């Protein structure tokens, strides 16, 4: 029921019903009033006419019986008459019904009728008289008193009376007819209201259902335009709106996807801020960086942005100026560009673009260090070559043996320069990806033990105990370039022997670590300081003088070893404690048998 009241059909039906009911009510009241007045006037005219005729008949005929017969024919239905020749005296009467005596007595004794006996005036009065059909019940009558002879001073009077029940029955029949008409009008109005409303609301209901589908994102929804009126035009407009919405949404999605693809593929960090300094949008590199900052702050509730960026953001939002700076944040270098975002004439936020310059700074530092180290490494042999060459040219050597010694030094320094250049070329070739590996399946224990035993004699000469230990099965194998791995082992064992004091110990150990073989070269020398440990695999980096014990190399061996292990999809690292020794460890993937 509530659904009907809230629908267009229900509202239209109620409106039409109220309108028809109001019109019928007004018409009924006016019609009853009109019929009542019309009936009263008709009755008065009829009674006057009949009274005049009765008076004329009675005056013209001498025989009373004949006059009464004529008068009965003249009187209308339900109309009675009383003829009084003298006041208060009943001479003749015509009464069809009960209570005739009481009725005549009340009429004759009515004071307002007495003047008719003396004047020519006609008097009409509505009175309560006994009923013609029931005992002890009064009814409303209309009574007309009309004089018989007007020439004499006192004359008779004809009283004609008629019950008003006729008028009431007429009004009742009229009211019933009106109510019947109202009921028929109500039924017809309801039928036509629902018929008309269904023709209106049915397409509107379809448009409503289509609108709900459109709100769900089904932009292919169509509404059938079954007419050419306003509702049909509305359906056509709805279909056009759906097509336009689908087109605009597709364009927006394409632009959104393009923007998302651009942001996702950008290596730079992009962060968009609202006016209230909250982060609105960020690309994957930005999210990764923010997570790192949150992790470093130790709480997810903390503000992830560093104070330097917050100051820049405040400046951009307050002064609407673009800022470009290069800052060091959390040990990394960033080129930061802050730009305001506008919505119309007002600023609605800011966008920050961060370019990580850490690698550029590191490469620049490596370049500077490389140039400095190469210059330093080449300066000594070049100076010695130049000095001894000049000495030989100037015949500084007094004896043949001294000149031979100078020539030997020149030869050794030239070999040293050759090794340095060879190492530089090898390292450059490895880092550029041009290193070629000749891999084959090699039994690990056999290969590592053979590479270790090569240094047995050198270890004895330096009074150092060289040991080989293994915890893996003899059948364990790796897919590797044996020559390159031997180059790594040679460099690491040679370093361990050279930096271990006499009486020390160097242990080569092979272990199993999940899917990798762990090879470690451990010595009990003086160790490497913690600040130097993270740089040992950099080019030309050397530990402090206390560790080298005056036995420096080119500084490229560990860098070459790191590149070889990485080319084998392994890992290499160093562990050390000052005064307790050093362990160089590299991992090689084991071959699955």
TrEMBL record:
**Source organism, top-level taxon:** Bacteria
Q: What InterPro entries does the annotation carry?
A: BphY/WalK/GraS-like, HAMP_dom, HATPase_C_sf, HATPase_dom, His_kinase_dom, HisK_dim/P_dom, HisK_dim/P_sf, HisK_sensor
Query: Known Gene3D superfamilies for this protein?
Result: 1.10.287.130, 6.10.340.10, Histidine kinase-like ATPase, C-terminal domain (3.30.565.10), PAS domain (3.30.450.20)
Q: Could you tell me which species this protein originates from?
A: Planococcus wigleyi
* CDD domains in UniProt: HAMP, HATPase, HisKA
Family annotation (SMART domains): HAMP, HATPase_c, HisKA
Give the protein name, as stated in the record.
histidine kinase
Instruction: Please spell out the taxonomic lineage of the organism that makes this protein.
Output: Bacteria, Bacillati, Bacillota, Bacilli, Bacillales
The Histidine kinase domain sits at: 373-592
């Amino acid at each position: 029921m509530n659904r009907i009241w809230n629908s267009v059909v229900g509202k239209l039906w109620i409106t039409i019903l109220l309108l028809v009911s109001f019109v019928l009510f007004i018409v009924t009241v006016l019609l009853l009033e009109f019929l009542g007045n019309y009936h009263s006037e008709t009755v008065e005219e009829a009674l006057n006419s009949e009274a005049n005729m009765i008076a004329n008949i009675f005056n013209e005929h001498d025989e009373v019986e004949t006059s009464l017969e004529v008068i009965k024919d003249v009187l209308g239905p339900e109309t009675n008459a009383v003829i009084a020749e003298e006041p208060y005296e009943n001479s003749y009467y015509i009464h069809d019904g009960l209570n005739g005596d009481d009725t005549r007595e009340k009429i004759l004794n009515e004071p307002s009728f007495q003047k008719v006996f003396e004047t020519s005036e006609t008097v009409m009065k509505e009175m309560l008289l006994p009923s013609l059909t029931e005992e002890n019940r009064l009814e409303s009558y209309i009574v007309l008193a009309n004089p018989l002879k007007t020439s004499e001073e006192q004359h008779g009077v004809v009283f004609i009376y008629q019950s008003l029940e006729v008028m009431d029955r007429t009004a009742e029949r009229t009211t019933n007819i009106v109510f019947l008409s109202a009921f028929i009008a109500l039924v017809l109005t309801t039928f036509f209201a629902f018929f008309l409303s269904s023709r209106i609301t049915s397409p509107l209901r379809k448009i409503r259902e289509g609108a709900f589908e459109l709100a769900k994102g089904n932009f292919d929804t169509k509404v059938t335009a079954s007419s050419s009126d306003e509702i049909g035009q509305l359906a056509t407009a709805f279909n056009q709106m759906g097509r336009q919405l689908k087109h605009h949404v597709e364009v927006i999605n394409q632009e959104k996807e393009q923007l998302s693809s651009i942001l996702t593929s950008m290596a730079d960090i992009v962060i968009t801020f609202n006016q209230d300094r909250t982060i609105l949008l960020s690309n994957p590199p930005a999210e990764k960086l923010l997570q790192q900052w949150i992790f470093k702050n130790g709480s997810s509730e903390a503000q992830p942005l560093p104070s330097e960026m917050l100051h820049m953001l405040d400046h951009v939002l307050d002064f609407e100026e673009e800022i470009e700076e290069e800052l060091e944040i959390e040990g990394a270098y960033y080129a930061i560009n802050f730009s305001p975002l506008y919505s119309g004439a007002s600023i609605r936020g800011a966008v920050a673009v961060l370019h990580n310059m850490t690698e550029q700074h590191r490469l620049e530092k490596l370049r500077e260090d490389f140039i400095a180290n190469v210059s330093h490494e080449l300066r000594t042999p070049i100076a010695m070559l130049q000095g001894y060459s000049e000495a030989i040219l100037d015949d500084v050597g007094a004896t043949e043996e001294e000149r031979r010694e100078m020539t030997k030094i020149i030869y050794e320094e030239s070999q040293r320069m050759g090794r340095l250049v060879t190492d530089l070329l090898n390292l450059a070739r490895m880092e550029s990806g041009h290193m070629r590996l000749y891999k084959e399946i090699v039994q690990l224990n056999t290969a590592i033990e053979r590479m270790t035993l090569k240094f047995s004699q050198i270890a004895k000469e330096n009074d150092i105990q060289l040991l080989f230990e293994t915890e893996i099965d003899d059948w364990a194998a790796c897919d590797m370039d044996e020559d390159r791995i031997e180059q790594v082992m040679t460099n690491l064992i040679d370093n361990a022997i050279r930096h271990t004091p006499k009486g020390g110990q160097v242990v080569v150990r092979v272990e199993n670590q999940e899917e990798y073989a762990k090879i470690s070269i451990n010595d009990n020398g003086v160790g490497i300081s913690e600040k130097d440990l993270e740089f040992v695999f950099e080019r030309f980096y050397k530990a402090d003088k206390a560790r080298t014990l005056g036995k420096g190399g080119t500084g490229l061996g560990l860098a070459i070893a790191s590149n070889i292990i990485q080319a084998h999809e392994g890992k290499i690292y160093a562990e050390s404690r000052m005064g307790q020794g050093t362990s160089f460890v590299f991992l090689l993937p084991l071959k699955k048998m």
